[in-house]
């Protein structure tokens, strides 16, 4: 994780005040230079006496921009050696016109370079690895359930796969209910939905073919979809634990939505744009005997969502929850269907779609913002039954666990090298 790497010390060679535009030019011994506005320096003073809340590990709550004097100037400025005995580094010591004193370490300044700061946070800027049907044989690592429960290193590797590939498989989980809770506890928490904390995909043999509840709770084909399209904030990750496999059929279908969306963007930018701008409404309505009874949700989402940098950040698509509502000029409707069909064609393309039959004890985990899942139809007989449990997690919970574990691993590696 780029940000956590220990940076080599480079000494500050000079610091020059630019009174006209109220900036400081910092020069380093390797020739690097950077402008720092006074207002930014003052706002980000790291002094432990006034500006920093020691136990809260944060800026003092009282130190808000509301109270910040935008016209402060340095009255004196000095480049001095760092007091930290372990590092041969230096810093800039500034006394401000209001009498406050601040110090800025060389490495600290080098980290904050405004629009030329690299986006190198391994968690927020992951190294995405796209995959197609070949993922089954080559890239999909199998994680032992017991390792995940007992080893932080296994847990971190598994979460890193979820971040970079969007898919990871756990094997040899006990074939009992509620095992997903143990995975949730290892990360932090499972994320509840109106189907509860852990939901069952359990199909009972019914000779007359009648089934109840959600469309997944029967033995039919489920086309590729993301889960919970019908809430405003769909869960970030989905896990499916196979307790009993279907005797025939029921293979999971999986497809990398980011890869398909990138292909669509390259080959048909107009169709891609329609899917990023058209808002669909989705709904879920029913009755749960397990929890709070009746539910009815309605949400609005585009099928492909972009982040602030224009990168694909989320796919939200399930035909079975889509309502007829399209608040668009009627003349664009057929182009929207063409775009949807092109995207689904990409997702279902045999080179992109990967088929995997979950066995008892398997847990497939996916990034629900990226990977679409479905399943082939299957047989339910009097003596065999397909029994799965599902649960969700929130990316913020996974991210924070990754960040903490990564820092611990980096620390261990540093210690073992010194
Ligand atoms: C679901 C689902 C997959 C399966 O319940 O949303 O996708 O394999 N189930 O039954
Ligand atoms: Zn301060
Ligand atoms: Zn699903």
Question: What can you tell me about this protein's structure?
Answer:
By secondary structure, the protein is α+β, with helices and mostly antiparallel strands. The protein folds into two domains: 12-116, NE0471 N-terminal domain-like; 135-404, Clavaminate synthase-like (Double-stranded beta-helix, 4-Layer Sandwich), CATH 3.60.130. The protein contains nine helices and 22 strands. The chain has a six-stranded mixed sheet. Strands 12-21-14-19 form a four-stranded antiparallel sheet. β1 and β2 (23-28) form a beta hairpin. α4 (152-164) packs across α9 (395-417), α6 crosses α8 and α7 (269-277) packs across α8 (333-348). It starts with 11 loop residues before the first strand and ends with a helix. Residues 1-6 have low confidence and may be disordered. Bound molecules: N-oxalylglycine and zinc ion (2 copies).
Secondary structure layout:
Elements: E1 12-18, E2 23-28, E3 33-37, H1 38-43, E4 52-53, E5 58-59, E6 74-81, E7 90-96, E8 101-105, H2 106-111, E9 142-144, H3 145-150, H4 152-164, E10 167-171, H5 180-187, E11 198-202, E12 222-225, E13 237-244, E14 252-256, H6 257-267, H7 269-277, E15 280-288, E16 293-301, E17 304-306, E18 312-315, H8 333-348, E19 353-356, E20 363-367, E21 371-375, E22 387-393, H9 395-417
Parallel strand pairs: 9-10
Antiparallel strand pairs: 1-2, 2-3, 4-5, 6-7, 7-8, 10-20, 11-22, 12-21, 13-20, 13-22, 14-19, 14-21, 15-16, 17-18
The structure holds N-oxalylglycine and zinc ion (2 copies).
């Amino acid at each position: 994780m780029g940000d956590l790497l220990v940076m080599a010390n480079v000494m500050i060679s000079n610091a020059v005040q630019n009174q006209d535009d109220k900036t400081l030019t910092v020069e380093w011994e390797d020739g690097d230079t950077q402008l720092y506005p006074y207002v930014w320096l003052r706002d980000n003073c790291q002094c432990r006496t006034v500006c920093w809340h020691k136990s809260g590990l944060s800026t003092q709550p009282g130190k808000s921009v509301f109270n910040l004097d935008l016209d402060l100037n340095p009255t004196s400025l000095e480049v001095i050696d760092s007091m930290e005995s372990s590092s041969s580094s230096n810093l800039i010591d500034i006394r401000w016109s209001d009498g406050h004193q601040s110090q800025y370490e060389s490495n600290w300044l080098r980290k904050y370079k405004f629009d030329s700061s690299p986006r190198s946070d391994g968690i927020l800027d992951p190294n995405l690895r796209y995959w197609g049907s070949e993922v089954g044989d080559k890239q999909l690592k199998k994680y032992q359930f017991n390792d995940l429960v007992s080893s932080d290193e296994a847990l971190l590797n598994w979460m890193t796969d979820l971040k970079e590939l969007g898919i990871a498989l756990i094997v040899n989980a006990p074939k009992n209910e509620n095992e997903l809770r143990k995975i949730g506890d290892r990360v932090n928490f499972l994320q509840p939905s109106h189907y509860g904390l852990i939901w069952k995909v359990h199909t009972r043999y019914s000779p007359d073919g009648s089934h109840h509840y959600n469309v997944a709770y029967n033995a039919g084909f489920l086309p590729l979809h993301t889960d919970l399209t019908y809430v405003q904030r769909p869960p970030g990750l989905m896990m499916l634990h196979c307790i009993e496999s279907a005797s025939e059929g029921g293979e999971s279908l999986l497809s990398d939505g980011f890869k398909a969306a990138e292909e669509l963007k390259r080959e048909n930018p107009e169709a891609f744009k329609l899917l990023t701008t058209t808002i669909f409404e989705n709904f879920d309505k029913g009755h749960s005997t397990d929890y709070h009874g009746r539910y009815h949700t309605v949400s609005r989402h585009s099928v492909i969502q972009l982040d602030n940098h224009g990168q694909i950040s989320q796919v939200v698509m399930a035909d079975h929850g889509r309502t007829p509502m399209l608040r668009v000029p009627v003349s664009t409707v057929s182009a929207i269907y063409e775009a949807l069909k092109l995207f689904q064609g990409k997702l279902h393309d045999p080179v992109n779609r990967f088929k995997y039959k979950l066995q008892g004890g398997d847990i497939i985990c996916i990034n629900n913002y990226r990977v679409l899942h479905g399943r082939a139809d299957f047989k339910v007989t009097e003596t065999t039954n397909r029994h799965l449990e599902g649960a969700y997690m929130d990316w913020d919970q996974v991210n924070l666990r990754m960040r903490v574990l990564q820092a611990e691993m980096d620390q261990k590696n540093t210690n073992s090298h010194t």
